Amino acid sequence: MQRNQKHRILQQFLAASAVFLAAGGAMAQATAPAPQPGAPGMPGMHGHMHQGGGMWMKSVDTDGDGTISKAEADALFNRIDTNHDGKLDKAELDAYRKSMHEQRHAEMQQAFEAKFKAADKNGDGALTREEMQAGFPRMAKNFDKLDANHDGKVTMDEIRAGMQAMHQERMQRPQRGPGAPATPAAPAGSGG
Predict the structure, then answer these.
(1) Tens digits of per-residue pLDDT, 1-58?
(2) Rounded distance between C-alpha atoms, residue 94 and residue 91, angstroms
C-alpha cells in the first residue's frame, strides 16, 4: 500500500513539475531563438513546452536513454524527500520547485547575456535596432517600447525593465479561458 502511495505521489509530482517547467519555458521567450518551421512542440507554443520538458527530462534521465527508469524516478523522489520519511510533503515540493525555478532563472540569465553579447556586434553594451532585429527578431517588434531613454539603443537593463513592465501589464489583464473567473452578468433592466 505504501509503495502504491509513493508511486501515486511521484506521478502527481512529475505531472506538476511538467506544468511548472512549461510555465517556466514561457518566461524563456526572450532568450529562445525564433521558432523554426517544423520545430517540435505544440502549434502556437513556440516550442516552450518541448524545451522545458526536454530540460526536465535531461535532469531526470541520468543515463540519457530517453526514458525515465524506476531507479531514476526513485532517485528524483529521494532528492526531493529531504527529511527521508518516504513521503513528499508540501514544504518539500515547494522547496524543490523553488530551487528548480532559481536554477532555471540563472540559466536563462546566462543564456540571455550570452545572446545579448553576441548580438552586440560593436561591443558598446547596447543594441541598435538592426542588432536587435538580427539577434532578437521577436523582441525587436518592441524596440521603441524598450528604448526607455529614446537614444536609439537598448541596453540589457532597458530590456529587463521593459520585459518586467510588459509582464506586469499582462498580469493586470483579465484572465480568459478555463479556470478564469466568470464575467459578472449584465444587470437586468427594471421591468417596470
Answers:
(1) 566 676 667 666 666 665 455 444 444 444 444 444 433 333 333 333 344 566 678 8
(2) 5
Q: What three-state secondary structure class fits 95?
A: helix
172 vs 168: CA distance, rounded Å: 6
Q: Which helix (H) or strand (E) holds 153?
A: strand 153-155
The two counts, helices (H) then strands (E), for the chain are 8, 2
User: Judging by beta carbons within 10 Å of its beta carbon (0-12, 13-18, 19+), is residue 160 exposed, middle or buried?
Assistant: middle
* pTM greater than 0.70 (yes/no): no
Q: What is the spatial distance between Cα 150 and Cα 4, in angstroms, rounded to a whole number?
A: 61
Give the orientation angle of helix 70-80 with respect to helix 2-27, to 10 degrees: 80
Domains of the chain: 1-30+46-104 (no CATH), 120-175 (1.10.238.10)
Which positions ≥6 away from 94 have C-beta within 8 Å? none
Q: Which three cell numbers stand for residue 100?
A: 528548480
Q: What does the DSSP assignment read for 3-68?
A: HHHHHHHHHHHHHHHHHHHHHHHHHGGGTSPPPPTT-SS-TTTTTHHHHHHHHHHHHH-TT-SSS-
